[in-house]
Amino acid sequence: MQTSAKPGRRVDSASADSYGPLYSFLLLLPFLVLLLAAFVYPVGKLLLTSVFSPGLTFEHYEHVASGLYARVFIRTFVIALTVAGITCLLGYPVAWLLTRVKGKIAFFVTACILIPMWTSVLVRSYAWIVLLQRNGIVNDLLLGAGLIDEPLKLIYNQGAVIMAMVHVLLPYMILPVYGALKAIPVDLSKASANLGASSVRTFSTVTLPLSMPGVYAGSLIVFVLALGFYVTPALVGGPSTLVIATLIGQQVTQTFNWPFAATLSTLLLLATVAVTVAFRRFMSFSGRL
């Protein structure tokens, strides 16, 4: 004897909650085609080009191990690590402030963070050239104040590259840290204060540890983006601060050495993947603690 379903109760069925393999594949097909055409095929061809030119060879990888190109790799990693550290030091206080203010002040701080992200990187890089060049605004102000006797060389060096990259990538640090800070319950800080902890102790024992996932995520995003930065180092740094992305561009557009450019791109890709995997393992290890 069959029993009828009660009114108002949802009747579960397999067709209502899931799709069969064929329908699932059809739904994923556009994404898979895009993934194959825009990522798998270019990366696969890149890997093949680096070792087949035209026969199987690893001479380009041996060439990278020479002193000049090894120094370029080291310089790129040092710049990326420095940029990640500076953005963390500058971005954390801004993110913390954004969680404490309200109204017009919060709107103003948010606008200061988001508006630079909507501006082209090329425009922001040229703005730093206007500021730091020999006859730029900074040198004019220093000369007018009598602090220097002749213009300083503030551009086309590693310091200018780091400064400009910090300016471009700072929002990518602020937003993850802000998300982590915003997720911390306010009651935890109040409970710490009620137990007699000072504001400094509350921050060091409660707020900072709970916000570290946002710090780690922001640091990873900034570090990976800085590894592949091209426009800013090319414009602000010049030949004296050659980085991997700029070197790859030179090999493609000037020397037309596609196999060597593919080798450099492959090594940069492997380094990025290695950093990401190490970060995930570190986060998993920290989570188990």
Explain this structure:
The chain is mainly α. The chain has a domain at 90-260: Orthogonal Bundle (MetI-like fold), CATH 1.10.3720. The chain contains 13 helices and no strands. It comes from Paraburkholderia azotifigens.
Name the descriptors.
single chain; membrane; globular; ABC transporter permease; MetI-like_sf; mainly alpha; MetI-like fold; transmembrane; 289 residues; MetI-like
> Mind telling me the CATH superfamily name of the domain at 90-260?
MetI-like
* CATH topological fold name of the domain at 90-260: MetI-like fold
Tell me the number of helical segments per DSSP (H or I, 4 or more residues long).
13
Give the mean pLDDT.
84
Helix fraction bin: over 70%
Order of helices and strands: HHHHHHHHHHHHH
CATH uppermost class of the domain at 90-260: Mainly Alpha
- The value of Rg in angstroms is 26 Å
Parts with pLDDT < 50 across at least 5 consecutive residues = 11-16
The span between the termini is 56 Å
| Strand content range | under 5%
For the sheet with most strands, the description reads: none
CATH architecture of the domain at 90-260: Orthogonal Bundle
Structural class: mainly alpha
Shape: globular
Number of strands: 0
Pfam family, one: BPD_transp_1
Protein name: ABC transporter permease
Membrane topology: Multi-pass membrane protein
Domain ABC transmembrane type-1: 73-279
Task: Offer a quick outline of the entry.
Helix content is 76%, strand content 0%. The protein has 289 residues and is an all-alpha fold.
